Amino acid sequence: MYQTIKEGDQHPPMFRSTVLVDGVSYTTQVTFLQRKAAEQEAARLALENLSGKIGERGGSSVCEVYCDKNRLQELAQKSSIALPLYQTINEGDQHAPKYRSTVFVDGVSYTSQLTFPQRKAAEQEVARLALESLPKKIRDEGHSLVSE
User: Fold this and answer.
1) What is the SS3 assignment for 25?
2) pTM recorded for the entire structure
3) What does the pLDDT look like over 52-67, one tens digit per residue?
């Protein structure tokens, strides 16, 4: 969640932003002329910090873990195809969930072979599967694809 405040005089407006991630606040050190720029800088600070923590634990980068759904959506938008639609079901118990996800994009469904304890992880995995297949399908059918 972002909290953005306007500092100083009304003209020009100056914005400082804070984003709260997992109970930790990340605040911009400088002010910005646009609210969006201040929020993006706060997000960048949080991402840098979280990337470092993941790297310390020997994991992948934040983007490798969390960006496949975003990349799939951007690819659909750039290619003028329908946005991805996710269907995620719990095949386990309430106290021990096992999520499996299916994504429908460009008239094709992709289903994860694995199950995951978190819904988001299942959706990221199925987005990754779709990304592996979809760019080739888009190129073969002649959709305009901007660089991946």
Assistant:
1) strand
2) 0.53
3) 654 444 444 455 555 8
